[in-house]
Specification:
Elements lengths: L1 H7 L8 H22 L1 H20 L15 E6 L1 H7 L7 H7 L11 E4 L10 H17 L2 E7 L1 H5 L11 H5 L3 E2 L15 E2 L10 E4 L12 E8 L2 E4 L1 H9 L7 E4 L3 E4 L7 E4 L1 E3 L2 E5 L18 E4 H8 L6 H14 L3 E6 L6 E4 L2 E5 L1 H13 L8 H12 L1 H8 L2 H9 L3
Length: about 425
């Protein structure tokens, strides 16, 4: 009976080779597309990018300078660290401390092209001593004429205390330093649609303005930073872009935007600088090509960028007693700062910290330094256009078909699953 039943049942026809190849190719393409739609592919790319940044930094240490290559020597930092807080007291400090520090960059031995503060100066002092201190700070800002003060926009402005509640907003001052949206009529008046935290009116004369807004990717990592921020009918430059404009002797009219894919900066001493960007809500963001970090390491105890403590600069400027080693270090710092850009920001562990691909908890002034370094070296990361990404996915899905046709057995199976 068993033999009769077996002989009466029709044998199963195997799938044709062509159909198997088609199904496997479709499956591979489907998996690849799911990776793209769900963001898994993007997160995997970000993780490997962070690893590549760290690996590349270790390989790029110059044996002579003891710093990574591609760090621009004219981008320097005056850090407000724990030692400075111990010496000068709890933050915020009286503004005459800033005046004393800036004095180092007004002598004939060191003429900087730009100074940028990653610090907000939204209020003025009310007592007589404080008003006198603020007045001196205002005087040196006007004397120098190349200092860029920081501001914030939207939610970050509200978190910082808002602008209208603590300070009189001068939209004309911002408009003069911003770029009208494409297609705007000539002499278009700035019409903001959100709050802007900007410096106190006393400090605006002779000063420049740049935003320090930041964006975070998955896991809170700062892989991209705004270059321009749209508010109403104008684009407002970031702190780093404004400093680069001062360095290149450029003005707002020297900035153009190409299809929200490039910010083009016309330079006085070279070809236009094309900055690759992408639109993210109200931001035109740049993928930061991280070349260095402020965090000390065994190879570079002082961090990758040329830097000095706030107190060290004040002591040197005022001729205070210093060790020969400290004096030499400050003199080398001042030589780098000459004809360069000085960024001032907090570096203490209790300050404004965040994650970058090179460190899980570094001072966020680190981000501005890396953006500025990219702008001065032209060392940019470029994303792949979405159309090319889809094309790559489709080409990748054809690999299984080739594997099934050209290979057999284990080799064909191995190549078939490789795109997945």
């Amino acid at each position: 009976m068993a033999e009769t039943a077996s002989s009466s049942s029709a044998p199963r026809r195997p799938l044709s080779a062509t159909l198997r190849i088609l199904l496997i190719g479709l499956l591979s393409a489907g998996v690849a597309l799911v990776f793209g739609w769900t963001g898994l592919g993007k997160r995997l790319e970000q993780l490997t990018l962070d690893m590549r940044f760290a690996f590349r930094r270790e390989l790029s240490i110059d044996p002579q300078t003891k710093r990574p290559r591609h760090i621009h020597p004219k981008v320097v930092l005056v850090g407000i660290g724990a030692g400075d807080l111990d010496a000068f007291g709890k933050w915020p400090w009286p503004r005459d401390y800033q005046t004393r520090m800036l004095g180092a960059f007004t002598n004939a031995a060191c003429r900087v092209r730009a100074v940028g503060y990653d610090v907000l100066f939204m209020t003025t002092e009310q007592d007589a001593k404080g008003r006198k201190s603020d007045a001196k700070f205002s005087e040196i800002l006007q004397k120098m004429g190349n200092v860029c003060l920081a501001g914030l926009i939207r939610k970050e402005a509200a978190a910082a205390g808002g602008s209208s509640s603590t300070n009189e907003v001068d939209y004309g001052w911002i408009e003069a330093q911003s770029i009208p949206l494409e297609g705007s009529p000539p002499n278009t008046k700035f019409e903001p649609d959100t709050e802007i935290a900007q410096p106190a009116s006393l400090f605006r004369d002779g000063s420049h303005f740049g935003l320090i807004n930041a964006v975070r990717d998955d896991g809170g990592v700062h892989r991209r930073m705004p270059i321009l921020v749209r508010d109403g009918n104008y684009w407002i430059p970031s702190l780093a872009l404004r400093l680069a404009m001062l360095y290149y002797e450029a003005d707002s009219v020297d900035i153009t935007i190409e299809s929200n894919r490039f910010v083009v900066l016309k330079r006085s001493n070279g070809p236009p600088l094309r900055i690759p960007v992408e639109l993210d809500d109200e931001f035109l963001v740049m993928r930061v090509n991280y070349r260095g970090t402020l965090s000390p390491s065994a190879q570079i105890p002082s961090g990758d960028f040329v830097n000095s403590s706030f107190g060290g600069i004040v002591d040197w400027a005022e001729g205070k007693s210093m060790t020969a080693k400290d004096k030499k270090y400050i003199e080398e710092f001042m030589a780098s700062a000459n004809e360069g850009i000085v960024v001032i920001g907090q570096t203490s562990t209790g300050g404004d910290l965040g994650a970058t691909p090179l460190h899980p908890g570094t001072a966020l002034v680190d981000c501005h330094l890396n953006v500025l370094n990219n702008l001065l070296t032209g060392d940019f990361l470029k994303g792949v256009a979405s159309g090319w990404g889809w094309l790559f996915t489709m080409v990748l899905s054809l690999i299984p078909s080739w594997a099934m046709q050209k290979l057999s057995g284990f080799k064909g199976s191995a190549v078939t699953v490789s795109p997945v």
